[in-house]
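tool=predict chain=A
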Amino acid sequence: MRHMLNPLDFSVAEIDQLLDLASDIEHHLPKYAHACDGKILATLFYEPSTRTRLSFESAMLHLGGRVLGFSSADSSSAAKGESVADTIRTVSCYADIAAMRHPKEGSALVASMASRIPVINAGDGGHQHPTQTLTDLMTIHSLTGRLDNMTVGLCGDLKFGRTVHSLIEAMVRYPNVKFVLIAPDELKVPSYIREDVLRAHNVEFKEVGSLEAALPELDILYMTRVQKERFFNEEDYIRLKDSYILDKAKMKLAKENMFVLHPLPRVNEISTEVDSDPRAAYFKQVQYGMYVRMALIMTLLEVERPC
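tool=predict ok
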C-alpha cells in the first residue's frame, strides 16, 4: 500500500508515468467512466477548500466511484477532540482511499501511519501540497512540452506558500531548471528550501524584490496570494497583501510564450484584465487538477488502465 504525502514519494519516472496517464484521461475521458466502480473516496478536510476538495470528488465521480467525508473540522468528531489517527482508523472501515487536508504540518504522515487505506495529503499547514504540485507539473508540461530547461518565477508569499515549496522540491529533479524567487523580505522562502533543496541540488536561483525586473526572463510565472490565515499579526498582512499585482501593463514585459499559473484562490494579485491574455493558464490548471487526481487515485488503488 502506498500513500502520497510528499511530491518526492514518487520518482521522476513514476511521475512521468502518472502524467502520461493523466494526459490519456484528458484526451479519452469517457473510457475511464467505470475505472473505479465500487470504490469509495473519503475527503477529510479539516480546513476550508473549494478547488482541492471538489477536484478530488469530481475525480472519483468521473472514475465511477463514490465519495463521503466532511468539509470542516467543526463538522467532524475533531470538534469533540478525536485524534487524526483515530479518525483515519474509523474511515478505513468505510472507504478505499482518503484525501486529507489539515492545518497542522505532519498530520498526513500521522494519518498514514494509522491507516489501512492509501492516504493522499491534500495540504498540511504550510508544509506540502503534493497533488497541487502534480497539477502544476502537468500544466507546465502540457503547455510547454517539457519540465526541464526553463526559468520559473515564483512570486508573492514564498514563506508560507506550501504550493511553492512543493513545486520547488519537485522541479529541482529536472535538468537545467532555474528559479527566480520574487518576494518582499518578510515573505522569502524558508531557509530549508534555500539551503537543503536549492543549494543542496546545485540549482541556479536568485531572490529579487521586483516583479517587473524579473518578468522578461521567465518561461513560467507562478503567482501566489498573500495568505491572511498564515499571519499572526493582521498589521503585517495588510502591509504586505498588495506587494505584487500582475496586470496588463506588466504582462507586456513578459515573453510571448510565458505562461501564468496560480494555485487559486485569487484575491487581487492577478488583475481580472489578465484573464483574457492567452498566456493566463490558471483556469486550465484547475481542469488539469481533476485529470491528475484521477490518475493518482487509480495509481494508489492499483487500478489498471482501461483498454
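The two ends are 24 Å apart (CA to CA). The mean pLDDT is 91.
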